[in-house]
User: Fold this.
Amino acid sequence: MSEQQTDLDLVVIGAGFAGLAMLHRARESGLHTRVLEAGDGIGGTWFWNRYPGARTDSECYYYCLSFSPEVVAEWTWSERYPGQPEMLRYLNFVADKFDLKRDITFGTRVESAVFDEGSGTWEVTTDTGESVRSRFVVTGLGLLTEPHIPDFPGLDSFTGETYMTCRWPADGVDLSGKRVGIIGTGATGVQAIPLIAQEAAHLTVFQRTPNYVVPAQNRPMEPDEIADLKARHYEILQKARDHSFAMPFEPGHGPAGDFTADEQRQIFEEGWKSGGFRFLFETFDDIIVDPAANESAAEFIRSKIREIVHDPATAELLCPKGYPYASKRPPAGHDYYEAYNRDNITLIDVGSAPIREITPTGLRTADASYEFDVLVLATGFDAVTGALTGIDIRGRDGLALKDKWADGPATYLGLTVHDFPNLFTISGPGSPFANIPVCIEKNVEWIGRALDHAREHGGVLEATAEAEADWGRQVQEVVSGTLLPQGAKVHSWFTGTNIPGKAPVVNVWFGGANNYFAACDTIADKGFGGFTTPG
Assistant:
């Protein structure tokens, strides 16, 4: 018989940003807590994603945890956009600072979580055969963690080396002198391609949909800059919490239509030099709502591609067309377009000539065959819901979460689900897609208050069906006035259309992270309206 532990208050699934922050908050409430982590170490996204070029798309000084002034004071970032090794060192620093690892069980994948109505507890089982019983369960699984591998015929027949970017070997891969093929040019591929091209004898890139890539403009952090940012950290944090995408940015210059074409280009040039998401958010305020403003930004990016890439035919293949800028997740680049000026890189358009099969020696499209020694899959994720539905989570009357969400995810605030009492989802479906650490900390603060409230009022907290339905309506309504739903026609994970058979609905909140935070705070301040408790 498997071991059963019945004295836990809280089980947290995942030991990335979310799991660490939740464990720290749970300790403050005196909750007996255990974190279950599938990996052999902490880090979540930053544990698994070790591919060449992996780094943040948000700047270091607001892509971090803020619950500890000591951590803010003691940790010093080396780069504007930290790479994966630095992010992993940072999260280990936080964990060690607060001795968090003593409550984390590594190498343990959760297979199921079943609510027992009789006892009002959750039974969580793992791949090690252990069964853990707890009053509350919080998932910290991340938006982009469940890998998606397209059903390529013949994939198992390839006799060379095959690697997934999101499961890259910890000790690296020697690609020197090898012919490499990479499938996928999303945010991961955009980061990996320039680095792989530097090492491989030849790199063949298979692109279905070209992306709008703005350079990150990464650089080392200067000591004076670091000192200033540390001194103003909580001012910066509040500014991020007041921003629609949880970033401490200045407003844009207003509507693009108020400026001439030359003036627009000058402002876009400034945004290009600033880099990353600043191009989207600090140029004009209507890029994601006004088609004309969006097309101005899109055409500026296309002009930059044509300017950077020497070969006109390759440049045109890299130019995104037919969908608005930012309706797919916009990546930040590090010499991405410049990489295509190398002699050892070839770009193949599989949008016009789809991949037919993987062969023992490479790949065959509709019109040609290609041979390589190494195949790299940068094919994305079953985003937002995939990690949750990958666990057999069952609520009242044995209802499976994956069945409840068959036609699209339904949550209240992206944090709770009707018929699943005392289950909380950090960054769950219907929560904001914005600067993730800031969103995580606000989620954790709210869940901490919810757990305290539940314990004071009968021990059970459950979203009502009415509150859940109303939130789902709001999630769809707030995005309807933007251009973002148009990403559905080019396989955007924002809408789940990158996964065959997945319900094509917007699965994250685009009504402003600041508005979301305010709504959550109001609900907690007013006694958790929209929830039922036995008391």
